[in-house]
Specification:
The complex is a heterodimer of chains A (88) and B (232). Chain A is an alpha+beta fold. Helices cover 40% and strands 26% of the residues of chain A. In chain A, β4 (79-80) and β5 (83-84) form a beta hairpin. Chain B has helices at 8-17, 65-73, 75-117, 203-217, 222-231, and strands at residues 2-6, 21-22, 28-29, 35-38, 45-49, 169-176, 181-186. The chains are: A alpha+beta (88), B alpha+beta (232). β3 (25-31) of chain A pairs antiparallel with β6 (169-176) of chain B, so a sheet runs across the interface.
């Protein structure tokens, strides 16, 4: 289970926020307060896994900035204009 | 058993006031646990009360005027007695209702335990089985009129602000350890059923939001992690 460790889902400023720490980065998903947090967290997990694979096992600031095209492509494949395109 | 012998007038009063019903066999039964009986001449009549009355039996011979007068004076006593009957009946009703309520409560609890395991949503209550381990049958209450069907369960409708579309994600943000923006993509779809969201439109708003969010979610030893990451 990807969401085995809790505490990465908060309600901030009437937004549902799921986030993940990765080396020197924090990745966030924002959604409405009534959204399904398990689905969102699962999406974030899969996106993080994909980015980690793309950046050769080091999802850090320098890698993201150097491969911003890949990261954005990966994000667009995961989230299509706000719709979750694919979840595991 | 206390017996009260009354005349026709008092009898008719009692029949009216106590809402007695005439049974097919000629007897009269009241709702309050007492019985009335009378002879062929319909005079005099008797009321049998379940509770004995220490004042003794009241008797009137026939329905003549003098007796009627006496009896109308005695009406108070009769009503006192009737009050006792009413109170007794009320207590009995209360007891019965309480038993019924307790039985229903027990049943709801047991039925809830049964429905927890399966997905079936019961819209009606079922009487508890004597065998508590057996599954309660759905329409068992039809065989026992003492348990009327419970009203249908009312389900809460989804809240009005619930997003029923697939446009679920509002933004994807990557921040670094100092809270600076590395990547941020805010989704504001025109085809969203609830219209475009009005918040976090300007860069200033977004930056302020991200700063607050970072303050809330940053790691305690974040800077140390950053340095080790840079060293690699």
């Amino acid at each position: 289970m990807g969401w085995a460790h809790a505490g990465d889902i908060i309600l901030y400023d009437s937004h549902l926020v799921v986030y993940k720490h990765s080396l020197d980065l924090i990745l966030y998903f924002l959604a409405g307060p009534t959204e399904n947090e398990i689905m969102l967290y699962s999406t974030l997990t899969s996106l993080t896994d994909a980015l980690t694979m793309l950046l050769r096992n080091s999802l850090e600031k320098r890698g993201v900035l150097e491969n911003l095209d890949l990261v954005l492509l990966c994000l667009d494949e995961t989230i299509d204009d706000g719709c979750v395109a694919l979840t595991p | 058993m206390f017996t009260l012998v009354i005349d026709n007038q008092l009898h008719s009063i009692l029949v009216d006031e106590l809402q007695l019903t005439h049974l097919p066999d000629g007897r009269i039964r009241g709702p309050l646990g007492h019985k009335l009986s009378y002879n062929e001449k319909m005079l005099p009549r008797k009321i049998y009360f379940r509770q004995p009355l220490d004042r003794g039996a009241l008797t009137s011979s026939t329905g003549d005027k003098s007796t009627l007068l006496v009896l109308s004076n005695l009406t108070e006593l009769v009503w006192e007695c009737a009050e006792e009957v009413v109170q007794d009946a009320a207590r009995a009703v209360c007891r019965r209702e309480k038993d019924k309520f307790e039985a229903r409560k027990r049943h709801v609890i047991s039925n809830f335990a049964f429905s927890c395991g399966d997905v079936v949503v019961r819209d009606q209550l079922v009487i508890p089985n004597s065998d508590t381990h057996a599954r309660p049958r759905r329409h068992q209450h039809l065989s026992n009129p003492a348990y009327p069907p419970a009203p249908n369960v009312c389900y809460n409708p989804p809240p009005s602000d619930m997003n029923l579309s697939l446009y679920s994600v509002q933004a994807f943000i990557i921040l670094d350890t100092e809270g600076n923006r590395v990547l941020a993509k805010y989704y504001r779809s025109k085809s969203h059923p609830q219209g475009e969201s009005k918040d976090l439109l300007t860069l200033k708003d977004q930056k302020a939001f991200e700063k607050g969010l970072w303050q809330k979610t940053k790691k305690a030893g974040g800077t140390l992690t950053a340095r080790t990451a840079k060293l690699r």
